[in-house]
Amino acid sequence: MNSEIFAALLCGICARSRIVPDRPLRWTIITNPQAGGFTIRSRWKKHRAMLEASLRKAELVPPRPDSGPSLTARQADGSLGAYGLIPTTAAGHAGTITEALIDEIRSGLVSGGDRQNTPGKTAPFHLIITAGGDGTSREVQAALFSAPALVRSNCAVLRLPMGTGNDGADAPELDRALELLIAPAYIHWAGALRLTTAAPGKGPFLAFNILSIGLDAFVTHMTNRMKGRLPGDSYKLWVDIAALLYDRIYRVGPMDLRFFDPEGREQQAFREKVLLLAVGESGRRTYGSRKKILPDDRNVCLLRQMSLWRKMALKDLFNSGTHVDKPEARLFNAGRVEFRGEYPILAQMDGETVLLGPEDFPGTIEVIEKVIPVLKPQCV
User: Fold this and answer.
1) Which has the higher per-residue pLDDT, 118 or 329?
2) Which contiguous run of DSSP H or E holds residue 246?
């Protein structure tokens, strides 16, 4: 029931969107129906109220006559496709849906139209809306990353905060994200992060918000394992548990690190016992439900190994970003980071984890080209 209400309300907003007003508009809403924004009653109640208020704003302008759900959505199983919504059913499904959309966009560019469009008319512009957590938006963006440039230039992604962790969303609250559909917006090209390893056939791995190794990846890994078993936001619980358990499960040994600027010039190199290394697509990014790991313009945060007492003392500072003032933290800018260690360590990419062993070193985290079209508000 929540999915149908969500689909109908969002469909009404999309039909009046001001995105690329000089072209036919097609939208596809890719949802994870198990995401906390749908299943946690208090969150859904708040989200429904925001959707209804946003629709009232949108209804101040008439619907666009050339708008409608994508062919991919309309051909999907179930009645939700008539609104443009496709629910995901398993891990990887969001990426599969996006690949079908890529084919539809490519076909529309060749023919100049689709079945809802007069033959010969301008090809539609596609809006891809993700409504889930960071995993859903990561799958969609990973599929788009490999799409032809011409396809990517004829679509845009809007990432709604409907999950438990929404650090990759376009706004922390749903009403602010929906405003991008109602108010004038422009297409911004966002970058990505890539993790490569020395092991043949392992990776590369992509992220679009933050890619990290160490303690944070362990918290993410355990949170994913316990999803569905623990109520509410188990990430916060695992932050406390990880401070106690991490060193007993993963040995924190010295790592050799090298940091390079975007032009490939080496800036720093040192050997350090690394508790956590986080690299953002840019600075001013959060993870773990809005924890300010990168609170300023610097895109790299390194935390040295520390005592249990210091871990417990510092963990709450990430809420405000004041950990940057502590001696255990080092923040700076880098376009590429190379790391090598002796012991296994976990890495996480926007909520997905992988275990790296000595055979994977050296590992490389790099900020790569800006290829993902997303919406940003215009100043009017």
Assistant:
1) 329
2) helix 234-249
Count CB atoms within 10 A of the CB of residue 316: 12
| Beta pairing class for 85-87 and 25-31 | parallel
- Quick one: pLDDT at residue 312? 87
Report field, pTM of the whole predicted structure over 0.85: yes
Q: What percent of the chain has pLDDT over 90?
A: 80
Instruction: Tell me the fold of 194-370.
Output: Tumour Suppressor Smad4 (2.60.200)
Segments making up each domain of the chain, as ranges? 2-183, 194-370
**E strand or H helix that includes residue 280:** strand 266-280
CATH number (3.40.50.10330, 3.30.70.60, 1.10.3720.10, 2.40.50.100) of 2-183 reads 3.40.50.10330
Tell me, yes or no, if the two domains 2-183 and 194-370 fold the same way: no
What band does 120 get if pLDDT is binned at 50, 70 and 90? very low
Alpha helices in 183-214 (DSSP H): none
Tens digit of each residue's pLDDT (9 = 90 or more) over 286-310: 988 788 999 999 999 999 999 989 9
Q: Which residues contact 324 (CB under 8 A, 6 or more apart)?
A: 295, 296, 301, 331
Which residue shows structure tokens 């599969």?
Answer: 96
Per-residue pLDDT tens for 239-260?
A: 778 778 899 999 999 999 999 9
Three-state DSSP class for 38?
Answer: helix
Q: Which residue has the tokens 């963990």?
A: 315
Give the rounded distance of the alpha carbon of 149 from its chain centre: 20
In 3D space, the residue among 106, 104, 101 whose CA is nearest the CA of residue 151 turns out to be 106
Phi-psi region of 73 (alpha: psi -120 to 50; beta: other; left: phi over 0): alpha
